[in-house]
């Protein structure tokens, strides 16, 4: 019978764990407040009161906001940008990174240098805006997708991961008659599923939280993303979104504050629901390729 010695906790460990627990509780308080206010019945809602739990539960704010055209338009816009953007991100990033792993590729060093150059230097906001304008992408969903098809950081991490695959697998596939595209689709992609899951989460969260690009490239309120709409609800009192929908008297039934909190909860919910299912692949995908021996 083997006995595993337990590590004796020191005073530093207790202090460290206590501080971490305190910071976690402090970080949870805003979320608890938003959650509680969003589910609070309008009849018992009191402004500027902290709600740890709703005095009376109600779905009035959620029913109201889901019935407004502005929120539905913003949800459709965000879903479109997230789904299409994530698919294109994965295709471009993994195919480009796979190309960069080929040392026999003509001009490989130039391509790699160009990728690293963009990691260090950025054109800035004004040149990017002028480029989007010249391409005719203003007020288009593609202005939120094309400029972010990939990034230098993603390419370098994926490239490092793909280089950890045994080259003998590709060689045996070529001997069996596979083309380069066949090797990529039948060998590389199946072996890269953990990394694909991890980067799918990265890309999806990035697109779902798109705010700044949507703010400067999209001026049509019907094409706003959720983050821009929520900013308008929370910060701009004269919002052209859900705020005006309640200006005709509906906000007397559903307080504006509960509408705002419900909108925030609805914007967070999809990521919170998807993350637990990808967490296992996410952790494995981030670590794969990080250690070489």
TrEMBL record:
The chain crosses the membrane at residues 12-35, 79-99, 111-132, 183-205, 259-278. CDD domains: TM_PBP2. It is a multi-pass membrane protein. Its main location: membrane. Pfam families: BPD_transp_1 (PF00528). It is found in: Cell membrane. Residues 75-277 form the ABC transmembrane type-1 domain. Keywords: Cell membrane, Membrane, Transmembrane, Transmembrane helix, Transport. Belongs to the binding-protein-dependent transport system permease family. This is Carbohydrate ABC transporter permease. It comes from Paenibacillus chondroitinus.
